[in-house]
Amino acid sequence: xxxxxxxxxxxxxxxxxxxxxxxxxxxxxxxxxxxxxxxxxxxxxxxxxxxxxxxxxxxxxxxxxxxxxxxxxxxxxxxxxxxxxxxxxxxxxxxxxxxxxxxxxxxxxxxxxxxxxxxxxxxxxxxxxxxxxxxxxxxxxxxxxxxxxxxxxxxxxxxxxxxxxxxxxxxxxxxxxxxxxxxxxxxxxxxxxxxxxxxxxxxxxxxxxxxxxxxxxxxxxxxxxxxxxxxxxxxxxxxxxxxxxxxxxxxxxxxxxxxxxxxxxxxxxxxxxxxxxxxxxxxxxxxxxxxxxxxxxxxxxxxxxxxxxxxxxxxxxxxxxxxxxxxxxxxxxxxxxxxxxxxxxxxxxxxxxxxxxxxxxxxxxxxxxxxxxxxxxxxxxxxxxxxxxxxxxxxxxxxxxxxxxxxxxxxxxxxxxxxxxxxxxxxxxxxxxxxxxxxxxxxxxxxxxxxxxxxxxxxxxxxxxxxxxxxxxxxxxxxxxxxxxxxxxxxxxxxxxxxxxxxxxxxxxxxxxxxxxxxxxxxxxxxxxxxxxxxxxxxxxxxxxxxxxxxxxxxxxxxxxxxxxxxxxxxxxxxxxxxxxxxxxxxxxxxxxxxxxxxxxxxxxxxxxxxxxxxxxxxxxxxxxxxxxxxxxxxxxxxxxxxxxxxxxxxxxxxxxxxxxxxxxxxxxxxxxxxxxxxxxxxxxxxxxxxxxxxxxxxxxxxxxxxxxxxxxxxxxxxxxxxxxxxxxxxxxxxxxxxxxxxxxxxxxxxxxxxxxxxxxxxxxxxxxxxxxxx
Length: 775
Fold this sequence. Notes:
Layout: E1 12-14, E2 44-45, E3 57-58, E4 64-71, H1 76-86, H2 100-106, H3 111-123, E5 127-131, E6 137-143, H4 144-151, E7 154-157, E8 167-169, E9 182-186, E10 199-200, E11 206-208, E12 218-220, E13 226-227, H5 232-236, E14 259-266, E15 268-270, E16 275-277, H6 282-292, H7 295-303, E17 306-310, H8 333-347, E18 352-358, H9 360-364, H10 369-385, E19 392-398, E20 402-403, H11 408-420, E21 423-427, H12 436-439, E22 448-449, E23 460-470, E24 476-478, E25 483-484, E26 494-499, E27 501-502, E28 511-512, E29 516-522, H13 525-528, H14 533-543, E30 549-552, E31 555-558, E32 562-568, E33 574-580, H15 582-600, H16 608-620, E34 628-629, E35 653-654, H17 656-664, H18 666-669, E36 753-754, E37 761-762
Parallel strand pairs: 1-33, 2-9, 12-24, 14-18, 14-19, 17-18, 19-21, 21-23, 23-31
Antiparallel strand pairs: 1-10, 3-7, 4-6, 4-9, 5-6, 7-8, 11-33, 12-13, 15-16, 20-22, 23-26, 24-25, 27-28, 29-30, 32-33, 34-35, 36-37
Helix pairs in contact: 6-8, 8-15, 10-11, 15-17
């Protein structure tokens, strides 16, 4: 728990994917081949088995249980076809996205279906029965005996005592009439998984006493370490060139004043008082932006909406943003929310910042990943349904994560986002692929959800982390008492760029950019058909995975030594902390995307397929115009940075103007990779291993005429005008040491793939099948 404010010393924290433990939602069989998950043919639950040898005891019959029912899309094939068309550059419907109202009219479950499910829950004794705004889910709080009767199970725990951790025993079934209407049910288990919460170095927060100055970055006088603010990253990665200036860097330069960026999390919570607290303090966010942005951007930024949207779950509505008064937040969600908004606002001055959050008490009192995923489902649903007025939602950023799982409702929400042109961005995680014992966390070594939740036509762009250093001196400083920071007008470039990997806390506290392949989500076609495929094969073997899965991250952004303002006291003194993690990278990249949308005059929707086409183009045609600053130095506990795509930083750091230029050039944006690419890591040659050892199954792709009308997309938006420039850095630790338990590739192992068209073994790269000739 945080102590009283106002004491000296700086707190260093690793904040990232707010990461609870590991209960899956079942297999990802519905998603084989990277296709959108099937609905209507069955349903997925979060029920798990009791520990071996445990004799379960039924819960008290009146114990309150929160249930969320994910409703199935009534026309899944039509939705798949629409998403394929809206994301296909060769289609006349390319980027003709739908509004939320158009999507609901065309694809959402009917009001009758939602009402019928709600009525069933209410008649079973449910309270707080709520139909989501997008009609994709219905939630309620029911007594345990009603859950047993509705789903044909018995909720049992080891003790049977009230509020015990439980799971459903038996094979769940659906009430009459629900069979084709329901995709999944959450709440049949709250089985425990060790939760990870942000770890803080000893010491309280330090008061931020900003001194107006033109600073390149701040230096901790005691250690010499460079510290950054969000606006430092704009000059470092050419983002400033997308803003208006006297030199006119790009023809359409503008501020993203018509764009909205949504962040997802929970409110604060005081455990000792059992009291939900505000998610963040508006004074803190405004002070950060006012202090660290270029003075000519400040009016644009201060006029932009800064909105907290509480999301009611199980009848609990968290408080609005505001002062914390004398009540501290035990969860540190206020840190995360403040960081997300400050990073997005720094990279996208003038964009509306909207935070969707459920009650922190829900997050603090569950031990189930499945529960946590269900809470974030509701955050995302609220963000997609919200009325942003004269702004338009282009990006949703998620700085949270749990052990890889398959969540039915999230899978449906990301399809809606793709149809609406909304890009989902997710932090790739901070465990650095280190074992739990070495990281002090409990996510396991491999990629986390929702960064992994990706299919052929919907999903998240996973953002990893880099450590940077900036050349030149700094006028900014921290002397142990006062912090002097401001905006830098004189960028002198990067002195360092490598994978973010931090061993300074010693074994038990390692942290770094997370990557590798999912064991839940299969590899989407756009990764298979890309220059990333050879290193993905190598990463799969090094990870020791038995199948090729969705590989992360896709891109990376700075994740080290970043100053965030987090709380204010009764005298309006603002306090700061210095953070590291992909929770910096994800919202900062989301801000960059808002800039790209404003300048390009179009939304991106599901961005991953385009990123991999662009990455493959520059893999085959390397040069200074690349949209990504390739990261080839450093590594984490298992993987190393390398030319092209790698499992620590993806394609590298996106560059503002170069990414804009690549998107505007059809030869790059629509590039068809036919591989292999010279200079990139080659796929491992198959060895004397059964070809079934590592295999992948692909969806065959759907060629359909779209049955639904409503292909009236959101029109291309005209950008608004406004004014100009920013800049950032720190050193990353060395790669893993050999005395720890690393994962090594199996000696002589190789990967053989089945052709998705004829079923014959074929090379693990998108070259033509030697048997049927299919690409």
